[in-house]
Amino acid sequence: MTDWPGEPSSTREEMMLATYRALCEHGYPGTSIQRIADEFDKSKSLLYYHYDDKEALLADFLRFLLEELRAELEAVPDDEPRAAIERVLEGLLPAPIDDEGLRFRRAMSEMRSQAPYHVVYHEQFARFDEVIRAELARAIKRGVEDGTFREVEPTATAEHVFTFVVGALHRAVTLDDPDLVARDRELLDEYLESELYDEG
Amino acid sequence: MTDWPGEPSSTREEMMLATYRALCEHGYPGTSIQRIADEFDKSKSLLYYHYDDKEALLADFLRFLLEELRAELEAVPDDEPRAAIERVLEGLLPAPIDDEGLRFRRAMSEMRSQAPYHVVYHEQFARFDEVIRAELARAIKRGVEDGTFREVEPTATAEHVFTFVVGALHRAVTLDDPDLVARDRELLDEYLESELYDEG
Fold it and tell me: I want to staple B103 with a disulfide (CB 3.0 to 4.6 A). Which of A6, A87, A96, B24 is the partner?
């Protein structure tokens, strides 16, 4: 799970990459269709043809990220619950985090803050949360069933982990502090070690 | 620890109450000095006399909240660590949360998202985080020392709790879901029960 899935292989993916770059560069408040167009190598008019406004383009960007995330999760083998959890956490809360990674997560956190005002953002973030929590819960359930994890309640533990991750990111991006990501990731690893992995 | 400390007893407090009301009503993006003035019973020109712009007024509002929080924390007796922790959590993450409480926390979360762009906000939120984490760590330390809590590392546990709270609030206010506050508060109570209070 990387922030950006690799070389774009279609015009839509090129638009999405331009959007990603604009968000990293300008944050959500500073991103406009014009600034996305500035990052787009093909004809700018294509962007305006496909999207009426910034919100429509960014909603499609969120949809695209979710499709990528789902495809990636489906490609993952089912047999190593701990590796599956670590993979999700490394995608959300990589330690150490680089500057681009922090900027991208700031833009996402800012976009999430707009969810109360844009129903399409709300829909995508609610889905995103659901996909992540379900993946975590599924991995935890497998680990509990195969006896490698403690006997926890999978959905509750998944929810705890996910809420913690959202808090770690919101704190780090708003205080512009990459060390907070590293420190919180360490706390999360300790939590999982004692709550989940350690069989007592 | 309530959202609003009670009847205003000075002109400054009346300005702060007007700010609180405007934030609850319009959110951070929709709050302007004019809208704060609309909530202010005295002469509007007083507001413009004291504050150059929205950012200056809101920075003072954050300062005011922090002073209130500090005064409140100092007034609390030192002898019941568990009650001290519960008091902080009930202030941050009250369950059940009412509509005004959720709106106010949304405005605060939106203002926090502006911290990378306004150094005065950054300063106040960094202090706010520090005050809350220090209070939690102090209470945890006392409980560990008097033998009522497990032998945890107080600053690490305080940080885990605080990060979780920030995540719970950011998720709930952005998805406009008061039930998320209640669910996450329950998960946090379970965490404290097993990590901290339960002496095994």
Answer: B24
